[in-house]
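User: Sequence in, structure out. Go.
Assistant: Echoing your sequence, followed by the structure tokens.
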Amino acid sequence: MSETNPAAAEVAAPHRYTAAMAAEIEARWQDFWDAEGTYEAPNPSGDLAGEPGLVARPKKFIMDMFPYPSGAGLHVGHPLGYIATDVFARFHRMTGHNVLHTLGFDAFGLPAEQYAVQTGTHPRVSTEANIENMTVQLRRLGLGHDKRRSFATIDPAYYKWTQWIFLQIFNSWYDEEARRARPISELIAQFESGGRAVPGGRSWSGLSVAEQADLLGEYRLAYASDAPVNWCPGLGTVLANEEVTADGRSERGNFPVFKAKLRQWNMRITAFADRLLEDLEELDWPEAIKLQQRNWIGRSEGARVDFPIDGERITVFTTRPDTLFGATYMVLAPEHPLVEKFTPDAWPEGTHDAWTGGHASPAEAVAAYRAQAAAKSDVERQAEAKDKTGVFIGAYATNPVNGEKIPVFIADYVLMGYGTGAIMAVPAGDQRDFEFARAFELPIPCIVEPTDGRGTDTSTWEDAFAAYDAKITNSANDEVSLDGLPVAEAKARITEWLERKGIGEGTVNFRLRDWLFSRQRYWGEPFPIVYDEEGVAHALPESMLPLELPEVEDYSPRTFEPDDADTEPETPLSRNEDWVNVTLDLGDGPKRYRRETNTMPNWAGSCWYELRYLDPRNDQKLVDPEIEQYWMGPREGQPHGGVDLYVGGQEHAVLHLLYARFWSKVLHDLGHVSSAEPFHKLYNQGMIQAYVYRDSRGIAVPAAEVEERDGAYYYGGEKVTRLLGKMGKSLKNAVTPDEICAEYGADTLRLYEMAMGPLDVSRPWDTRAVVGQFRLLQRLWRNVVDEETGAVTVVDAEGADIDEETLRALHKAIDGVRGDLEGMRFNTAIAKVTELNNHLTKTGRPVPRPVAESLVLMVAPLAPHIAEELWRKLGHTDSVVHQDFPVADPAYVVDETVTCVVQVKGKVKARLEVSPAISEDELEKVALTDEKVVAALGGAGIRKVIVRAPKLVNIVPA
């Protein structure tokens, strides 16, 4: 909602701080900082090495999550975190740290490609234009970034190393015994020497090149496989599990997602599941984010059990092996690879009609049900639907503990992505199994003694009885009995028996799946992989990196009708035959190869960018070891190393953050970095929200043109509704930082965003409230500069010449602001600065120089431009950026007196000014002799006196 801008209107005094003056000051100091390299953080070595004294200081590496350079530019919600980290970084420069703070751009991804498809503009052209625009916007905010270290993920010099890291992962495997990644060459040596047996008893040299490649693919941390994937026809690409929403649609575009089987690149992140869980404990992250990662990884202990079937076996994972005697049927995921193998041509004699789904043969039933299941998302399949569906595949397995033949079904509530994609169904102990058994008239034996009085006759049960504190029953064979045992003991006994019989083993399972790493897009990093005539994948040598994206005329992957599940990807790169088919010499002479035509996902470049900030010009190494150790190496309190502070949104809890942790651990294991974790401390900032106004059709109208009348809101004369929500161009409520900077200046914007509330809490934007922080800066300016003459008005004075009230106000402010800035409580820091500034204004006297200089230094991290200007006016020739932050004198921080409240019968009767150090006995004597207290008691006796020195005395009369 618009109004006349008071900042621009106030021009009466020639030297008053106005919007025009703020703009001139800010532009001038930004130019100065750039020219002087004020924010350049020196490395201990290399081409960014600098002043040794700075390197000798304690370091502080402060990072923001990568911005994506959108064509819409920034709105005022975007810089919230950037301003916060800038304040924090500035404070630490002033407290004696060598601070690395910079910003790059995460520039590959779908938006630029979609824009290219729509307009024919090359993604690089539009992306670089967006970066240039965003850089200008960010510079105007006065952010203290080391600009030498900035880059974009689309720079070939950058993604050369993204490709190089992919090859490190491709050329490594996870050694379970050593619990670390190791070079694949060491695994090959084990196969060659016979130290590790080749499956099937053959020798390594006896395998063909293709067979060797297939075997190594079972170990590589980056591997290609034919596996169920999330296929999104509307986008023309496959998606990682994390990119599919809870309702089974694409995170970007909101298209339906289906299960399909395709050959794709994967990252074996599951090998690191235990370490990803364990190392979380040492990280200074919000507990909510840690919990999300724990749940996503989903560690559970249990047993793998083999169920014989037709001379082979189906393996299941169960967390309750103690309930094996209650398993009366099995369920496979519809896409389980063994379904077709065990599906006979005809229904077995006596097959229950309810099991067939009305189909003439098992094959028909399975095909129809698979098509039905493929149209559902994983979330839909796992939903607690009242009606359970499934079909019998026409085969029976054998329960290994009692020899009973149990039917094998497929049902959509079992997912291929969890466990083995097969379950033993124990209907008495699991609600979904119970409902399925009732629907298909399957036996429900009681195997756990109910403790809720329902009895053991399951025909009377209304639901399953799932308990961990009951005893096992009806669970014995000739070799083992679980009857009467509690659950934990029964699990241990049956697991030991399974292992002794060779039909099972205790194991750990994870919900986490391997990371799907292929995208059928153009605008992404090309894979440094080529295939020979036999289809064997070969890594490009480092000398051929970077493999750059070719120029193409058509950027669009082939998309399909969103609901058409019977489709397959076609990538833009596959249409460029001259690039795809190449002759290369990979060490054994020139040969023809075919390039990989998928590209990496947009997460690839952001998995390691913290390392590039350290050594951005290095074209010989990923990062210089000495530099990496200096900025990110392990140290006291940070046993895994990592960035000192990482600020961003909590929406990346199980995407970027989990992926980056995985890459960091691989690089650490292979000896490329000393840090096993990328980010030691994580802070999630809240969101700046804005009111969305909608007309009677529900369409958003321009918020700036809405008028408020008598508590209602009108647009063009029509009444509209108002609801607090996100800020964005599509909602017509976006306010750009450019607008606020033009009306008030960047320092005002910075102060307002930091003062709106706690940084980690969402808060509503109110343009009308911005003027409050502008007024603060005007009062600060007037306390130092005469608005009429422009002369500095402070007076030289030593401590003895400053009145005690002002000294106490000053040192309390210093103490409070220092603590608040360290704790990222920027809103309360601003409140304390405001309180001191107001005190100085109210005295009506010229401000003593020591007080004015301390105030300017406290303001410097928050409003750096006006602080630089005032610091220079106060006679200093060096920048305020690297000055020492003021230190409070403890003698003035403690109040000379405090107010003690005295209550009689719970009501306040007196307020006493007492020493903060007064004892309880002294305080009681003072309170009982106070005239007002004596009058309130009226001669009554005293039953009890409660003293909480120095602030409270509560007297209870007899």
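User: And one key feature?
Assistant: DSSP finds 30 helices and 31 strands in the chain.
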